[in-house]
Design goal:
The complex is a heterodimer of chains A (about 140) and B (about 775).
Chain A lengths: L1 H20 L16 H15 L3 H14 L4 H13 L3 H13 L4 H18 L2 H13 L1
Helix pairs in contact in A: 2-3, 3-4, 4-5, 4-6, 5-6, 6-7
Chain B lengths: L1 H30 L5 E3 L3 E4 L6 H10 L3 E2 L8 E5 L2 E5 L3 E3 L2 E3 L3 E7 L2 E7 L8 E4 L3 E4 L6 E2 L10 H11 L11 H14 L9 H9 L7 H17 L2 H11 L1 E5 L2 E4 L1 H9 L8 H10 L12 H17 L5 H9 L16 H12 L4 H6 L3 E4 L3 H21 L7 E8 L6 E5 L11 H4 L2 E2 L5 H9 L10 E4 L4 E3 L2 E4 L10 E4 H6 L3 H11 L1 H11 L17 E2 L1 H12 L3 E2 L5 E5 L5 E4 L5 E2 L3 H17 L16 E6 L5 E7 L4 E8 L13 H9 L15 E6 L15 E6 L18 H25 L1
Parallel strand pairs in B: 1-15, 3-4, 12-14
Antiparallel strand pairs in B: 1-11, 2-10, 4-5, 5-8, 6-7, 8-9, 13-14, 15-25, 16-17, 16-30, 18-23, 19-22, 20-21, 24-27, 25-26, 28-29, 29-30, 31-32
The chains are: A mainly alpha (about 140), B alpha+beta (about 775).
Chain lengths: ~140, ~775
């Protein structure tokens, strides 16, 4: 009986720790970006297809074209940040995530961006900033 | 005797071998000397784009698109009411080939409404037009090429060419004795030289030499080389080389070689889009490009063209009806300034400098690269015109000798650092001193945002409502006169709000503030904003006694305008190889170098400069809803007139002054700002909407005391202040908490917590 209880406790602890540790960065997170113009939707779709076939630079190009058209759309900046994360270009991932946050009050998006920040900082080995980002995500 | 003969044979053999080597090396060498071609930024068409039908037509015309009742071949369009049908050209962008398409574009009021694929009827969400060819990079010997493959040359052109220049091309061995004889006979009968006897091969050899010796000796050498050429190379290789080598005109210092380039130069469109009479004109040029120059000698050009057309008809290549129509058609020479390094020299200079960081000069001159840049030719021409007109206007107003004033303009997108226009001289096509990149001038009051930003970075000590002393400053300096900065209006204004000191550009208050913060801190702030040059750290820096170029100023203001995110200024988007393979992409690059709160505050203050500060003259020219921001700059004795200003989508820096550094009598507002306005009024501006960070609140302040105010204060103004920063005491006029310090403190922590919760609730509800 005692062994089973400790298993239970470990199991619960594991669940709690995991739930607390993993910020809400789902790889395929989709945003309710509101009414995006068809041109932006088309370019984002094109970027998504590029990512699927591993053409990450092409995807960047499409997202940058989208940004030229809609520079204040925070979700596009966020997508670019996530792409950079995938490319392991952590410095840039941080900057694009910060840019996205600087132009949005949407808590879902902001939390998501803090998640990207956390992952990017961890990738750079900056645990202090990574932890800060995690805390900021919680506070949103 | 025999020895002489042997010696003679040896000489001939050596001669032939030498000729052989020469002609082969020339042939091979010429093939690969193609300069880089430089393109404008791509124009993206999409529903909602602020573009009118006439503007789109102008963009198409600038690319050599031809108006045609039924647009079939690529490079044509037709307009009906609010709809335009376009057969677009294919173009290879960095991300691959975009095929030619037939589309229909519909307009609605002032914007593009809808794009449909004319073949399938499907909606087209976005369409990139082929960019404009704006120049080449420093062609060698001022020669230029637009290479074509033999397959790309229209059939009729080859037919006409061989007919007129070398009927027996496919059969002779480099020299055509029958052709020579025939020519001699015709010329004798005509009594003049009507027909040349040189084969195309011989002409090709002739083109390889820079000097045009027409001695018999040279002719013999050319003949020998022509024979050798035919020995080594196939007919189609020779013809292809010829088509790309043949001299077809001179434009100033620039030699036009090859039909591809001649097509662009004379007609503004690619070779494959030419009509029969246009082809006939080019073929006619071969014999005597200067004599038949269609721009200088249209009559001669016309009769030569028609002669070629007649010949084509005689030999059954066009029928009588087409012949008649072709002969009736006008020359069709384009008025568009032919793309060359001469079009936008200041911008091209910038491009070249940026390319040099990554590419060798050799590659740029000869590897046939394609370079896609950021320039917006429409904005560029508006900038050029504005500078030219306004400087002339100012000179006339103030009885200044015409031509004395000079100027520089740089326009860019603050959100990504892409440079849209560069004007380095009031005579923009003059490829001389590039004032945008190289004119280092004192920036005067343009430095002030850096001083105030350095202050606002210390939120614990400074905020927009901090009271500053605009009173005499006296700074003893070792080894020179004491520093006693004067205000522009020669007055001192006493205690003023920090935001007012910046918006009215008070020198005394700024100097005092800068000295408190420290010159080093200000210089470091400038570095953070993007100034790479080392700055001399004297107190006079605080009032702008530092020399910067307009492009450096633009970088500084880009960081401010982009909410504290620095994006290095760039002119190149991508580079492709000669075979259209992607070589390099210059990606978007931003870096947050200022915290969001001070970034917001400094932008807010720069909006005040335009609202009621030194740039309030803009209010009469732009709607207040644009919420423009900017800074005027005037240096000692009115030697330099600066203005840096931005909307939500565009930033432009303008400098006006004299090259000999004498006084112009112009302030920033009366000189540069007027040029800026003239230009920006013609552009599509978005409002500058600042994102207020969560930690900032609009707070009521009494402008006289700098203390907090409320509705009971008559002159209260609202200023954005960071939470916990700003005045804590209330002014006398306020009814809330007046003099009640205890009540204030009790309210203190808990009260502020309640406030904060309430505020968050309100924000969430938005």
């Amino acid at each position: 009986m005692q062994v089973k209880r400790s298993h239970l406790i470990c199991g619960l602890a594991a669940i709690i720790v995991t739930a607390c540790a993993d910020p809400l960065v789902r790889d395929d997170a989709e945003f309710e970006a509101g009414d995006q113009a068809p041109v932006v939707v088309a370019l984002i779709d094109s970027a998504r297809l590029d990512v699927e076939r591993g053409a990450l630079d092409q995807a960047s190009d499409s997202l940058e074209r989208a940004l030229r058209i809609a520079p204040t759309d925070a979700t596009i900046w966020s997508r670019l940040a996530r792409l950079r994360l995938r490319q392991e270009a952590y410095q840039q991932a941080v900057q694009f995530a910060l840019r996205s946050n600087s132009m949005s009050r949407d808590t879902v998006l902001r939390r998501y961006n803090f998640g990207i920040l956390e992952k990017a900082y961890r990738g750079m080995g900056d645990t202090q900033r990574a932890d800060d980002a995690r805390h900021q995500a919680r506070r949103e | 005797m025999r020895r002489l003969a042997v010696f003679g044979v040896l000489v001939v053999v050596v001669g032939v071998v030498w000729l052989d080597l020469t002609i082969r090396s020339k042939f091979e060498g010429r093939r690969w000397s193609i300069p880089a071609h430089v393109y404008s930024r791509p124009l993206e068409l999409y529903s909602g784009l602020k573009l009118t039908l006439p503007q789109l037509t102008a963009e198409l015309a600038a690319r050599g698109y031809r108006a045609s009742p039924v647009p079939q071949i690529a490079g044509s369009y037709s307009v009906r009411e609010s709809k335009i049908r376009i057969a677009t050209r294919e173009f290879v962008f960095w991300d691959g080939k975009q095929p030619a398409r037939h589309v229909q574009v519909e307009f609605d009021a002032e914007q593009l409404w809808h794009i449909t694929d004319a073949t399938t009827g499907a909606a087209v969400p976005v369409l990139r037009l082929d960019p404009r060819l704006i120049g080449s990079v420093s062609p060698v010997h001022h020669e230029d090429r637009s290479l074509v493959r033999l397959d790309d040359v229209p059939e009729q052109l080859l037919t006409a060419l061989l007919l007129i220049e070398d009927r027996n091309f496919t059969r002779h061995f480099g020299v055509d004795p029958r052709g020579l004889a025939r020519a001699m006979w015709i010329n004798l009968r005509a009594g003049a030289v009507v027909q040349g006897g040189s084969t195309i091969t011989q002409q090709l050899v002739k083109n390889f030499y820079l000097t045009a010796d027409r001695t018999l000796q040279r002719k013999m050498v050319e003949m020998a080389m022509a024979i050798l050429l035919e020995f080594h190379y196939e007919k189609h290789e020779i013809l292809e080389a010829y088509v790309n080598e043949v001299f077809l005109g001179q434009a100033g210092r620039r030699a036009i070689h090859g039909f591809g380039l001649a097509s662009q130069f004379h007609f503004g469109r690619p070779l494959r889009e030419l009509t029969v009479p246009e082809i006939a004109l080019l073929v006619g040029l071969v014999r005597a490009p200067s004599y038949y120059n269609p721009r200088r000698k249209p009559d001669q050009a016309l009769s030569r063209r028609n002669l070629v057309l007649d010949k084509l008809a005689e030999n059954g290549h066009i029928d009588a009806a087409d012949l008649a129509a072709a002969k009736r058609s006008s020359l069709g020479i384009t008025e568009i300034a032919p793309a060359s390094t001469g079009d936008y020299p200041a911008f091209m200079d910038f491009v070249r400098r940026q390319l040099r960081r990554d590419y060798r000069e050799d590659d740029l001159r000869s590897a046939g690269l394609s370079i896609i840049t950021t320039i917006d030719p429409e904005i560029q021409s508006k900038a050029e015109r504005a500078l030219k007109k306004r400087l002339a206007g100012i000179e006339s107003e103030r009885a200044i000798v015409p031509g004395t004033l000079q100027g520089a303009i740089i326009v860019l997108r603050p959100d990504n650092g892409e440079v849209l226009a560069v004007v380095g001289d009031r005579a923009p096509t003059f490829a001389g001193f590039n004032r945008v990149l190289d004119a280092r001038r004192p920036i005067g009051s343009l430095v002030k945002p850096a001083v105030y930003l350095a202050a606002l970075n210390r939120a614990d000590r400074y905020h927009l409502a901090t009271m500053l002393d605009d009173t005499p400053v006296y700074l003893k300096q070792a080894g020179s006169a004491a520093w006693q900065p004067q205000n522009y209006d020669k007055q001192f204004h006493g205690r003023v709000l920090l935001i007012a000191a910046l918006s009215h550009s008070y020198n005394a208050a700024t100097a005092r503030l800068g000295l408190e913060i420290g010159v080093d801190v200000v210089a470091d702030t400038m570095r953070v904003l993007g100034i790479e040059r080392s700055i001399q750290r004297f107190p006079s820096l605080l009032l702008g006694a530092t020399n910067l170029t307009p492009v450096e100023v633009a970088q500084m203001y880009q960081t401010l305008a982009n909410g504290g995110f620095r994006a290095p200024l760039r002119t190149i988007l991508s580079v492709l190889s000669e075979n259209q393979r992607p070589l390099a992409r210059y990606p978007l690059d931003v870096q947050q170098v200022i915290d969001p709160e001070p970034a917001y505050l400094i932008n807010y203050a720069l909006q005040r400069v335009v609202l009621d500060g030194t740039a309030r003259g803009l209010q009469s020219r732009f709607p207040v809803t644009l919420q423009l921001a900017g800074k005027t700059g005037t240096t000692d004795e009115f030697r330099d007139s600066w203005f840096a200003g931005y909307s939500g989508n565009l930033l432009a820096v303008v400098w006006v002054g004299r090259d000999d550094n004498k006084s112009t009598g112009l302030s920033g507002a009366s000189g540069a700002m007027r040029v800026w306005s003239d230009m920006m009024q013609q552009l599509s501006l978005e409002p500058l909407v600042l994102n207020m960070p969560q930690r900032i609140d609009m707070t009521m302040v009494d402008p006289v005391s700098g203390l907090r105010a409320d509705a009971s204060c008559a002159d209260a103004i609202e200023l954005p202040l960071i939470e916990g920063s700003g005045p804590s005491e209330y002014a006398d006029c306020a009814s809330s908490g007046a003099g009640d310090e205890v009540g204030q403190r009790a309210r203190g922590w808990f009260g502020r917590l309640i406030d904060r919760i309430g505020r968050r609730r309100r924000e969430r509800a938005k």
